[in-house]
Amino acid sequence: MSGLSPDKMVGVGLRSPHIHHFLSERPDIGWLEIHSENFFTPHSPARQQLRDIANHYPISCHGIGMSLGSADTLDKQHLSQLKQLVDDIDPIAVSDHLSWSSVNGQYFNDLLPLPYTEEALAHFCHKVDRVQEVLGRQLLVENPSSYLSFNHSTIPEWEFLRAVQQRTGCGLLLDLNNIYVSSFNHRFDCQTYLDAIDPQTVKEIHLAGFTVKQFEQGEIWVDTHSRPVSEPVWQLYRQWVRGHFSALAGVPTLIEWDLDIPDLDVLLGEADKAQQIIAEEAKDGITTT
Question: Looking at the predicted structure, is the pLDDT value of residue 288 above 90?
Answer without folding.
Answer: no
